[in-house]
Structure formats: C-alpha cells, structure tokens
Design a protein that fits this description.
This protein is an alpha/beta fold and 289 residues long. The protein has one domain: 3-Layer(aba) Sandwich (Arginase, Chain A), CATH 3.40.800.20. The chain contains 8 helices and 6 strands; from the N terminus they run αβαβαββαβαβααα. It has a 6-stranded parallel sheet with strand order 1-6-5-2-3-4, with helices on both faces. 46% of the residues are buried. This is histone deacetylase. One of its GO terms (cellular component) is histone deacetylase complex.
C-alpha cells in the first residue's frame, strides 16, 4: 500500500489544475478486483485514481492498451455513465478470459464499456487504424473531461507473455493521439515482461507526453548489453503474421461504433462542491472495508 500516495498524487495534481499530464509507470494494476487480487495486481490503483478524478470531472475516459483485458477497471464502473472504459486486448484462450465485444455495461452503464478483441500479431498500422477510429468516436459522443490511459507494454512484439507486434514507435503513437486532445491525462504503466522493451516503451512515451524529441541511440550504462543487438530506443517489428485482417477489424469496429452511438452525447451529472483530496490512509482504510 506504500504506493497509494503516488497513485493518488497523479489524480490530485490533475484535479488541482496546475498540471495537464501526470505519469506513474509503477501503476496500472488493472486486474485487481474489489474483493481480491488478480493477475499480479493487489490493489487497483486505476480505480482509486478515477474515483479521485470524479470529484472534479463530470466524465472520465479510461483507455487500456495492455495486451490483457482491463477487467478490474471495467467491473468497477460497469453500471455508471460517468466513466467510459475502452480496452483493446487479446481475447479468447488468454488471461483473464473476459472482454468480448458484447460486454457493453449494464443499467445506466449500458454501452459505456467498449471492448475491442484483437487477434495475435497485430501490427502498428492495424492497431492505429482501429484505435483512432474508436477513440475519435468515443471523444465525440462521451466528451470526457479527463482521461486515464493504461499503457501496458506487453502489447509490444517479443513480450514474454504477450502476443501482439507493436513497436516502440507504434505504441507511442497511441499515447500521442490521446495527448492531442489536450485534456487532463493520467498515464499509467501495467503489463510488460521483456524488460528491455518495457524501459524503451515508457522512456519514449515519457518523451511523447512531455512533447520532446529524444535520441534513438541509447547511451552506455550498466545494463547496456540487454538492449542488443540494435542498442536503439526504437524496436523493429517482429517477423510474424498479423491475424487481424482488414475485414475482421472493419467488422469489429462497425459493431462497436454502433454501440457507441447508442449513448447520450455528454451525459450530464449534478455537480456539488468538490470534496477535498484523498490521502493514502483514507483510501487504504476504504479499500479494507
């Protein structure tokens, strides 16, 4: 629970209005549920951060680009129209086995859960086309006031537990697209089981968030050897088949877009005085009750 302070600091900084982007690469524990740990995740920092953001922002958009479905976050907000969850992930015989396209939310939250099940080997181009189409539509309909983005690096090629084929640059393009909306943005880590890829990915995305250019050549340091044979920031795609055909992606996107257009444009909520920022002890106590 020692990380709770840092998890909540990002959200409280955004709520203060003094910052437009906050980053915590140690966060992104999207599998943890209310009553138990799951998938290497003990406490769902994402849910806690979104609850903090909802104290000020009428609507919060959650975007998940981890290779695994963001089941814990979706479950927490499955019945509300104040949080829209959008997850792009491997679906089928793959942990956690949830997140099919017809998981759309319930009650007031119906159509506010969007799941794009992807197949093995998805490339930068295929992913970007699908991502931009869905997120553009979500932004127009839902009109969020803040965004939380889980940037799991296990969607990159050669991940030990992943099955996608994104490069460092392709993964970063997703963050760049979300950043272009100029909304309060909380960037979080998540999965990633090939260390050299994880550090490349989040280093580059830190630069994307800060809107700075960094060299593709890695400086020499103690663990330099693990970044061979290229010793560069950007990774080439793996020579593997992309099972996501254009027809599959088009049909899936069409179904999801029909669902997205079912929601009210910018659902309204009653706004009261903003509560004070939570402390880590407050949330630790709440999480144990």
């Amino acid at each position: 629970l020692s990380n709770l302070h840092w998890w909540l600091t990002g959200a409280t900084c955004l709520n203060s209005g003094d910052y437009d982007i906050a980053i915590n690469w140690a966060g992104g524990m999207h599998h943890a549920r209310r009553f138990g740990a799951a998938g290497f995740c003990y406490v769902n920092d994402i849910v806690l951060a979104i609850l903090e953001l909802l104290k000020k922002h009428e609507r919060v958009l959650y975007i998940d680009i981890d290779c695994h479905h963001g089941a814990g976050v979706e479950e927490a907000f499955y019945t509300t129209d104040r949080v829209m969850t959008v997850s792009f992930h491997k679906y089928g015989n793959y942990f956690p086995g949830t997140g099919n396209y017809d998981n759309i939310g319930y009650g007031e939250g119906k159509y506010y859960a969007v799941n794009f099940p992807l197949l093995d080997g998805i490339s930068d181009l295929s992913y970007l086309v699908a991502f931009r189409g869905i997120i553009s539509s979500v932004m127009k309909r839902f009109q969020p006031k803040a965004i939380v983005m889980q940037c799991g690096a296990d969607s990159m090629g050669l991940d030990r537990l992943g099955c996608f084929n994104l490069t460092t640059e392709g993964h970063g393009e997703l963050v760049k697209f979300v950043r272009s909306y100029s909304l309060p943005l909380l960037l979080l880590g998540g999965g990633g089981y090939t260390l050299s890829n994880v550090t490349r990915c989040w280093t580059y995305e830190t630069a994307v968030a800060a809107n700075v250019e960094i060299s593709n050549t890695l400086p020499f340091f103690e663990q330099y050897d693990i970044y061979g044979p290229t010793f560069t920031l950007h990774t080439p795609p793996v020579n593997t088949k992309d099972h996501n055909t254009p027809l599959y992606l088009e049909n899936m996107a069409a179904q999801l877009l029909r669902n997205i257009h079912q929601i009210d444009i910018a659902p309204s909520v009653q706004i009261s005085d903003m509560p004070g920022p939570s402390t880590s002890s407050d949330n630790a106590e709440a999480n144990t009750t």
